[in-house]
Amino acid sequence: MHSLHVSYGEAYHSVHITNLNVPKTYVLDRNTYDAVGSGTLEHGGDDVTTGLPMTSTTEEHLPAIVSTTVPSEMNFTDAGLKPLIMDCQYEIKARECGFVLKWYFNKKLIYQWIPSRTPVGMNQFKNELQTNYSMSDSINYKYRALVIRNPKLNHSGEYMCSVQTYDSFDRRMARFQIVVPEKTLLLHYENDGESETMLLIKCSVFMIYPEPNLLLIVSGNLFLVSSRTLVTADANHMYNKTVYGKIDKHLLISPTSISCVLTVPDSGYIRKRETIYYDPTPLTKWSRLRMDERGHFQLLSDDGAVMAASTYEDMARHRDSSLLLTGLTLMN
């Protein structure tokens, strides 16, 4: 959130905003959204009908994977079709006159309240607001909140609260994002059809708003550049997206983790899918070499049990040390 202040002194002698409470993200309940139909959740000010066929993709039958993660510290509201309350908290000195509170959406005036008058909704929000929602019994603070009765897709954007008197003014802004959560997020890997040494990784998300970002991660810290991306959207602005990534199987030490992280721009919305890659080829002697936490090398049997352990110096004296060092270079 950003703010512009007229008074820059340590003590305020004019009207000023103390807190702008606008959730960063508002997550619509998926079941509620499906039940009422997206016709009640307009986008871009245009009427949207339901029941129209969705543009299809080729990624419809992928296996289910294991985990979902949503960081608890993210600032978002999880709700169905409930009123959305944005609160503008401020202080005003008793001596100041001519107080006016205004709310703007993408720099366009949508709400105005003068304590001696009835609050008024304006422009595209004229019929969208609950203007009689009281936040306080005090005459100068009673109708300060912006209350949207039924949040819609086209309500994502920048909100600004402005307070002013005859003598001073203040304003603050905050970015707000509506999210319709995905129906499905899937992660899958398979041998690449063009090269037997390459592994093809695919991550697909279905029926989400707005268009998300998908990031492929291997071994916890290796980010794959997408080799191909497919994006489609239906008439109700629900997105399907698939990203493809390739990696040389020689760079992977089996088993290793493969993850897909979904994020929505300008929000705290995050989802994650993870699976484990296992090399199906028979293990050779050198591919069974592992290093423990003390820096000692361990030779594993086919079932993963430790057969032998040695230091690097011991193994370097081995008559096949040149082959061993080549194997170590590949694995590192």
* CATH class bucket of the domain at 12-31 and 80-179: Mainly Beta
- The CATH architecture of the domain at 12-31 and 80-179 can be named as Sandwich
Q: What's the SSE pattern?
A: EEEHEEEEEEEEEEEEEEEEEEEHH
Low-pLDDT residue intervals, each spanning 5 or more residues: 1-11, 39-76, 315-332
Distance between the termini: 45 Å
Overview of the molecule:
InterPro entries: Ig-like_dom (IPR007110), Ig-like_dom_sf (IPR036179), Ig-like_fold (IPR013783). Helices cover 7% and strands 40% of the residues. It is mainly beta and 332 residues long. Among the domains are: 12-31 and 80-179, Immunoglobulins (Immunoglobulin-like); 184-277, Immunoglobulins (Immunoglobulin-like, Sandwich), CATH 2.60.40. Strands 1, 3, 4, 6, 7, 8, 10 and 11 form an eight-stranded mixed beta sheet that branches. Residues 1-11, 39-76 and 315-332 have low confidence and may be disordered.
List the defining traits of the structure above.
four-stranded antiparallel sheet; about 40% strand; about 325 residues; mainly beta; disordered N terminus; Immunoglobulin-like; elongated; disordered C terminus; eight-stranded mixed sheet; Ig-like_dom; 22 strands
Give the SSE map.
Elements: E1 2-5, E2 16-21, E3 25-28, H1 30-36, E4 76-79, E5 84-91, E6 100-105, E7 108-113, E8 120-121, E9 146-148, E10 157-164, E11 169-179, E12 184-191, E13 198-208, E14 213-218, E15 222-224, E16 228-233, E17 239-248, E18 256-263, E19 270-277, E20 289-291, E21 297-300, E22 306-310, H2 312-316, H3 321-331
Parallel strand pairs: 3-4, 3-11
Antiparallel strand pairs: 1-11, 2-5, 5-9, 6-7, 6-10, 7-8, 10-11, 12-13, 13-17, 14-15, 14-18, 16-17, 18-19, 20-21, 21-22
